[in-house]
TrEMBL record:
<dbReference type="InterPro" id="IPR019533">
    <property type="entry name" value="Peptidase_S26"/>
</dbReference>
<feature type="transmembrane region" description="Helical">
    <location>
        <begin position="38"/>
        <end position="58"/>
    </location>
</feature>
<keyword id="KW-0645">Protease</keyword>
<dbReference type="InterPro" id="IPR000223">
    <property type="entry name" value="Pept_S26A_signal_pept_1"/>
</dbReference>
<dbReference type="InterPro" id="IPR019757">
    <property type="entry name" value="Pept_S26A_signal_pept_1_Lys-AS"/>
</dbReference>
<comment type="similarity">
    <text>Belongs to the peptidase S26 family.</text>
</comment>
<keyword id="KW-0378">Hydrolase</keyword>
<dbReference type="Pfam" id="PF10502">
    <property type="entry name" value="Peptidase_S26"/>
</dbReference>
<feature type="domain" description="Peptidase S26">
    <location>
        <begin position="37"/>
        <end position="267"/>
    </location>
</feature>
<keyword id="KW-0472">Membrane</keyword>
<dbReference type="InterPro" id="IPR036286">
    <property type="entry name" value="LexA/Signal_pep-like_sf"/>
</dbReference>
<protein>
    <recommendedName>
        <fullName>Signal peptidase I</fullName>
        <ecNumber>3.4.21.89</ecNumber>
    </recommendedName>
</protein>
<feature type="region of interest" description="Disordered">
    <location>
        <begin position="1"/>
        <end position="26"/>
    </location>
</feature>
<keyword id="KW-1133">Transmembrane helix</keyword>
<keyword id="KW-0812">Transmembrane</keyword>
Length: 300
């Protein structure tokens, strides 16, 4: 009996051989799921750009002195409602009217897509439906009353090197050889002749005055219902409602369906300088422009 117990005890205490560890099986990439995720992400971004806001880059000097070439803006899409040009890609045919539409206010800086094009312009709204608008010797006349213009004065815009630089930086002082100057601190600036313009609602902003130009006179028109009249702040270098579509302008008063949104503020500004060399990255951005509001101030 005791031998049998000892035998069973010996059998139960013998080591049990270890089974080889099971290796986890690597799953295959769910490419369909990845594509779906990317699709929904792109759709969300496009939806945000269509209905809420989108970035906008300033490619020309037509809105000097307030906007410089290289400025990056935020454009809100909802202030005026939505139209067929609201989507990021202008693929829709003309559709009359706006969803939850609201007319802009005089002095707003707006994004507009000229009829027959897919290019976005940025201009300032000067005339509303029903206004009689004329430009005479550079002065805007609204409903028979000249828009108030202040005295000619100058502002210095940092130019970061001047006309010797490649585009787009060169365009920030493409106003004549005498405009490029050296400031007391030794930096190069663009010395810009400016006149402050004040609209009937009290909103005011600076416009560039370079002397006589072909846009200084525009025959009086009555702005039709559902249309607006737009002009650039750099009055002598802006293709806007004063010029035909063939002249790269807006072709007169623009149907409000072509307004894509309102410019809100500057996020950052690129100089056109710098390269892949990290030592030059400090030259790539203009300081002091981030957060600048693009809403025209109102006189007290």
């Amino acid at each position: 009996m005791s031998e049998d117990v000892a035998l069973r005890t010996q059998e139960t205490t013998e080591p049990v051989p270890h089974e080889p560890a099971t290796q986890p099986i690597k799953g295959r990439t769910d490419w369909a799921g990845e594509v779906r995720g990317i699709f929904w992400l792109i759709l969300a971004v496009l939806g945000f750009h269509t209905f809420i806001a989108k970035p906008f880059y300033i490619p020309s000097e037509s809105m000097l002195p307030g906007l410089l070439v290289g400025d990056q803006l935020v454009v809100s899409k909802f202030p005026y409602g939505w139209s067929f040009v609201s989507p990021t890609f202008h693929l829709l045919p003309f559709i009359k009217g706006r969803l939850l539409g609201h007319l802009p206010e005089r002095g707003d800086v707006v994004i507009v897509t000229p009829p027959g094009t897919e290019t976005d312009y940025i201009k300032r709204l000067i005339g509303l439906p029903g206004d009689r608008l004329e430009v005479r010797d550079g002065t805007v006349i609204l409903n028979g009353v000249p828009v108030k213009r202040g005295p000619l004065h100058y502002v210095d815009i940092p130019n970061y090197g001047g006309v010797q630089l490649p585009a787009p930086e060169r365009a920030t002082c493409d106003l004549g050889d005498d405009a490029l100057r050296t400031a007391p601190d030794g930096k190069t600036v663009c010395h810009v002749p400016v006149i402050t313009e004040t609209l009937p609602n009290g909103r005011h902003y600076d416009t560039v005055e370079l002397g006589p130009s072909i846009g200084d006179n525009y025959k009086e028109v009555t702005i039709p219902a559902g249309h607006v009249f737009l002009m650039g702040d750099n009055r002598d270098r802006s293709a806007d409602s004063r010029f035909s579509l063939a002249e790269q302008g807006l072709g007169g008063p623009v149907p409000w369906e072509y307004l894509g949104g309102r410019a809100e503020f500057i996020t950052f500004s690129k100089t056109g300088l710098g390269s892949w060399n990290p030592l030059t990255w400090g030259q790539s951005f203009r300081g002091g422009r981030a957060g600048t509001s693009l809403h025209a101030e109102r006189s007290q």
